[in-house]
């Protein structure tokens, strides 16, 4: 039996490079960088002082709107993805919300209460996450299945894989897969403790240099990326344009180490092979890759090894890009934003450059696009992502070939 075809029919973005898919992708292709000094909270003596803050976004206080900062990003990105979707069908749309830190500022506020409110203690963090997905769904008027997941920085890709499975299993016809996160004092303290962030270079602000021989760390950012996935029947029933087909996706966790992947990249190899198998593709079927590419010494070499293991000699000829030089590492939103960019590459035939890459590390022997955007003829794109604790996700999108209802 042929599995249901699942399509991307809408997308939305809130990022440090701009809000809305056109502004976001134009900035990526222009090689702009959205990173700058942190302004949202006082760093005191923290040496890590550069981030990717969302600018020009009116963040309402939680007390006024009942939404965490990240959830406000998610609502905006989801609203963009739902543009043109029939209001009368929103009651059946499912929502898969994915994040690292969720409503961090709400949790931070509760922890600051001393003592805890009498008779109730501190609420569990998981309760906050559940509240975020419920409140986002209520704000959008969604009435379908609600799911909240957290697979570290592979969360966004895992959300797409989950949404894909829901539609194939017949549990939903339309699903919003949205990754989100916001920068808050509590999460910044935890991220700083990892010691993976780049520091200023010779008095100049810190930057992310994916795959560069002189790369010195990543920089964290915030935002939301959202993709609306629909079955062929659902999309055809409302005459929706098909932006891309989600050909396959997978998520795994090899629990190798609390903070980094195994040096052979076996977890990454496994998840990419799982996604290829899910899509019914051989490695030769992938034309272009959006890499995780954090700009840390360890990640970029591990990912390069994994790509060579999976794709063999072709790994050196497949155009690869990391958008983290431009965007920073958007945590739960990272792979969602990269999936949006992958769909845009399918639609435009343009791969954005890897910002800040000057000298390719010989240990990262890949065809990394740099300096300027590259025009390519692609039909299938892989987006790869990873997170601490051994989490991995991979999503494969390809040019849509409409199928008849029931396929």
Description:
The protein is globular. Helices cover 31% and strands 20% of the residues. The protein has a single domain, classed as 3-Layer(aba) Sandwich (Peroxisomal Thiolase, Chain A, domain 1). It is of the alpha/beta class and 407 residues long. Helix 3 runs parallel beside helix 5. The longest helix has 16 residues. The C terminus is likely disordered.
CATH superfamily membership, which one?
Thiolase/Chalcone synthase
Annotation, overall tally of beta strands: 16
Low-confidence stretches: 403-407
Beta-strand proportion: 15-25%
Which fold name fills CATH's third level, the topology? Peroxisomal Thiolase, Chain A, domain 1
The assigned structural class equals alpha/beta
Roughly what percent helix?
A: 25-40%
Shape: globular
Main sheet overview = 12 strands, mixed
Count of individual domains: 1
Task: Please give the CATH class.
Answer: Alpha Beta
Q: Note the run of SSEs as H and E.
A: EEHEEHHEHHEHEHEHEHEHEHHEEEEE
Distance between the termini: 9 Å
Number of helices: 12
Instruction: Evaluate the radius of gyration.
Output: 20 Å
Overall residue-averaged pLDDT value: 91
Quick summary:
The protein is of the alpha/beta class and 407 residues long. It has helices spanning 21-29, 62-65, 69-81, 104-112, 125-140, 155-168, 185-193, 232-237, 266-279, 297-311, 324-327, 334-348; strands at residues 6-15, 18-19, 36-37, 50-51, 94-99, 146-149, 174-181, 223-231, 244-253, 288-290, 319-321, 350-351, 367-368, 374-375, 380-387, 391-398. The chain has one domain: 3-Layer(aba) Sandwich (Peroxisomal Thiolase, Chain A, domain 1).
């Amino acid at each position: 039996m042929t599995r249901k075809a699942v399509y991307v029919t809408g997308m939305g973005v809130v990022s440090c490079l701009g809000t809305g898919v056109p502004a976001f992708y134009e900035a990526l292709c222009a090689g702009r960088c959205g990173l700058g000094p942190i302004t949202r909270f006082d760093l005191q003596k923290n040496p890590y002082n550069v981030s990717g803050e969302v600018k020009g976004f009116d963040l309402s206080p939680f007390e006024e709107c009942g939404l965490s900062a990240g959830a406000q990003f998610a609502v905006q990105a989801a609203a963009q993805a739902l543009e043109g979707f029939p209001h009368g069908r929103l009651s059946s749309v499912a929502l898969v919300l994915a994040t690292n830190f969720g409503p961090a500022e709400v949790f931070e506020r509760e922890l600051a209460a001393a003592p805890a409110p009498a008779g109730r203690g501190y609420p569990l963090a998981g309760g906050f996450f559940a509240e975020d997905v419920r409140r986002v769904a209520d704000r959008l008027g969604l009435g379908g299945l609600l799911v909240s997941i957290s697979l570290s920085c592979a969360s966004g890709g895992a959300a797409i894989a989950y949404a894909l499975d829901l539609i194939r299993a017949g549990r939903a016809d339309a699903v919003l897969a949205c990754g989100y996160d916001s920068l808050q004092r509590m999460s910044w303290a935890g991220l700083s403790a990892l010691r993976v962030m780049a520091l200023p270079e010779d008095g100049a602000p810190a930057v992310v240099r994916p795959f560069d021989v002189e790369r010195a760390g990543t920089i964290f950012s915030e935002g939301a990326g959202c993709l609306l996935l629909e079955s062929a029947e659902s999309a055809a029933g409302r005459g929706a344009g098909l932006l891309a087909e989600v050909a396959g996706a997978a998520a795994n966790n090899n629990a190798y180490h609390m903070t980094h992947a195994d040096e052979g990249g076996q977890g990454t190899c496994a998840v990419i092979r799982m996604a290829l198998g899910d899509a019914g593709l051989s490695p030769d079927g992938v034309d272009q890759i959006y890499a995780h590419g954090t700009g840390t010494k360890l990640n970029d070499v591990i990912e390069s090894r994994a790509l060579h293991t999976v794709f063999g000699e072709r790994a050196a000829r497949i155009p690869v890009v990391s958008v983290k030089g431009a965007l920073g590492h958007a945590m739960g939103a990272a792979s969602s934003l990269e999936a949006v960019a992958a769909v845009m590459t399918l639609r435009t035939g343009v791969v954005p450059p890897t910002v800040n890459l000057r000298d390719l590390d010989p240990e990262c022997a890949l065809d990394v696009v740099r300096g300027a955007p590259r025009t390519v003829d692609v039909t299938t794109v892989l987006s790869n992502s990873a997170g601490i604790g051994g989490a991995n996700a991979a999503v494969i999108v390809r040019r849509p070939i409409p199928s008849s209802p029931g396929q």
